[in-house]
Amino acid sequence: MVYAKTSWHRKNCNGMAYLIADSGATKTDWRLIDGGREAAAFASKGINLALMDEEQVNIILKEEVAPAVDRKIEKIWFYGAGVTGHEVEEMFAGCLAQFFPGAELAASSDVKGACIALFGDEPGIACIIGTGSACCLWD
């Protein structure tokens, strides 16, 4: 899970309230960090941006994510399956803006999230074996 190396995220947040999501096709693990401490942990259905349309994403955000967040969020780091490019990121940013207005979005692949969690700023090799599988060299 990406929150394992929250120090990597903390140095990029300056004490703001933020969400970190690690998403696959089956489930999404969310962590709310505020003041450098974990304030909440919860899960939602998986969000795979390559397989889901805007309506499907909005239902999950509305029913499972927004109700679990009780404060203004300034930044969201989303690491997920199906984050494949700018068009997908823009669609997802539009969905998030409905529930977290003004929050900055950083969306990247689940592989990048795994690398940050495992290695932070150090090099290494990461593998994901789940509903889908991937591996990479992080340097």
Q: State the helix count.
A: 4
* Assembly of the depicted chains: single chain
Overall SS class: alpha/beta
State the strand order across the main sheet: 3-2-1-4-5
Q: What is the string of helix and strand elements?
A: HEEEHEHEHEE
Write the layout of secondary structure elements.
Blueprint: H1 6-10, E1 18-23, E2 27-34, E3 37-45, H2 54-65, E4 75-80, H3 86-99, E5 104-109, H4 110-119, E6 124-129, E7 133-138
Parallel strand pairs: 1-4, 4-5
Antiparallel strand pairs: 1-2, 2-3, 6-7
Helix pairs in contact: 2-3
Can you describe this structure?
This protein has 139 residues and is an alpha/beta fold. The two termini are 19 Å apart. The protein contains four helices and seven strands; from the N terminus they run αβββαβαβαββ. It has a five-stranded mixed sheet. Strands 6-7 form a two-stranded antiparallel ribbon. It has helices at residues 6-10, 54-65, 86-99, 110-119; strands at residues 18-23, 27-34, 37-45, 75-80, 104-109, 124-129, 133-138. Helix content is 29%, strand content 34%.
